[in-house]
C-alpha cells in the first residue's frame, strides 16, 4: 500500500470517529506507522472532522518532523507506545464521552478501570490500567504510557481520556469503539449491578484466542 493510501486511511477513520461523536472540536489525536518506520499523525490544533491528507505530520520514532505540519504535542505518548509494542501499527487517543467520564470517577481501580462485562472487552482490550492525572502534553504522560504499554494495548488517562492501539489503524479504531461501548455499558448497568465474567471465563478466552 502506498503512503498516499495510508494518509487517506487515517483521514477516513478520523472523520468516521468525529462524525459519530468519539471526538469533538480539536480534541484527540490519531496516528499510524508507515512501512518506512516513520509515524503519520494528526497535526497540532487539528480536528478529526476536517483533516487534510497532505498536511498530516510525518515524524521519526524519536519525534523529529519529516514533513507536513507540526505534530500534536501528545504525539510523544504515541511514540512511547510504538516503542514498547513493535507489532503496533495504529494508535487512537480520544476524549470520547463515556471513557472520559469514567476517567473522572473517584476511587478508580488503577490496575483495571473496567470490569470484564463482555467477552469482547476481554478479547480486544483485556485490562484498562490508569495513569494518574498529568496535564495534557506533558512528557511525563509518555513515561507512564511507555511503562504500561508493554503489557497493555489500551490505557486510560485520568480526567483526560483513553489511548488505544492495534496492529493497524483499522484495529486500533475497532478497539477504541469496543472500549467506549464497554464504558457506556458500565454506566448503564451501574445503578442495577452487573454480572461480570468469572476468572475461569477470562482464562478460557485468553487461552482460546491467545490474548496477552
From TrEMBL:
Enzyme's top EC category: lyase
**Keyword Flavoprotein among UniProt keywords:** no
Recorded GO cellular component terms are: cytosol
EC number(s) given by UniProt: 4.1.1.104
MF terms (GO), sorted A to Z: aldehyde-lyase activity; metal ion binding
What does it catalyze? 3-dehydro-4-O-phospho-L-erythronate + H(+) = dihydroxyacetone phosphate + CO2; 3-dehydro-4-O-phospho-D-erythronate + H(+) = dihydroxyacetone phosphate + CO2
The segment(s) forming the Class II aldolase/adducin N-terminal domain are 8-187
Q: Which GO terms describe its biological process?
A: pentose catabolic process
Q: Does the keyword Protease apply?
A: no
What are the protein's UniProt keywords?
A: Carbohydrate metabolism, Lyase, Metal-binding, Zinc
Cofactor(s) listed: Zn(2+)
- SMART domains named in the record: Aldolase_II (SM01007)
Briefly state the protein's biological role.
Answer: Catalyzes the decarboxylation of 3-oxo-tetronate 4-phosphate to dihydroxyacetone phosphate (DHAP) and CO(2).
Query: What family, per the record?
Result: Belongs to the aldolase class II family. AraD/FucA subfamily.
**Mind telling me what this protein is named?**
3-oxo-tetronate 4-phosphate decarboxylase
Source organism of this protein record: Winslowiella iniecta
Amino acid at each position: 500500500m502506498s503512503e498516499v493510501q495510508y494518509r487517506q486511511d487515517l483521514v477516513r477513520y478520523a472523520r468516521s470517529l468525529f462524525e459519530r461523536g468519539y471526538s469533538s472540536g480539536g480534541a484527540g489525536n490519531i496516528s499510524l506507522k508507515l512501512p518506512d518506520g516513520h509515524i503519520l499523525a494528526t497535526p497540532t490544533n487539528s480536528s478529526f472532522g476536517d483533516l487534510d491528507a497532505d498536511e498530516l505530520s510525518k515524524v521519526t520514532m524519536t519525534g523529529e518532523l519529516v514533513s507536513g505540519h507540526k505534530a500534536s504535542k501528545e504525539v510523544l505518548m504515541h511514540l512511547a507506545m510504538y516503542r514498547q509494542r513493535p507489532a503496533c501499527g495504529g494508535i487512537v487517543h480520544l476524549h470520547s464521552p463515556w471513557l472520559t467520564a469514567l476517567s473522572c470517577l473517584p476511587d478508580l481501580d488503577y490496575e483495571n478501570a473496567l470490569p470484564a462485562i463482555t467477552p469482547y472487552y476481554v478479547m480486544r482490550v483485556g485490562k484498562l490500567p490508569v495513569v494518574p492525572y498529568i496535564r495534557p502534553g506533558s512528557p511525563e504522560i509518555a513515561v507512564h504510557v511507555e511503562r504500561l504499554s508493554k503489557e497493555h494495548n489500551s490505557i486510560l488517562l485520568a480526567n483526560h481520556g483513553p489511548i488505544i492501539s492495534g496492529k493497524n489503524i483499522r484495529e486500533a479504531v475497532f478497539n477504541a469503539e469496543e472500549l467506549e461501548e464497554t464504558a457506556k455499558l458500565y454506566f448503564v448497568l451501574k445503578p442495577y449491578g452487573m454480572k461480570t465474567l468469572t476468572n475461569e471465563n477470562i482464562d478460557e478466552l485468553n487461552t482460546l484466542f491467545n490474548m496477552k
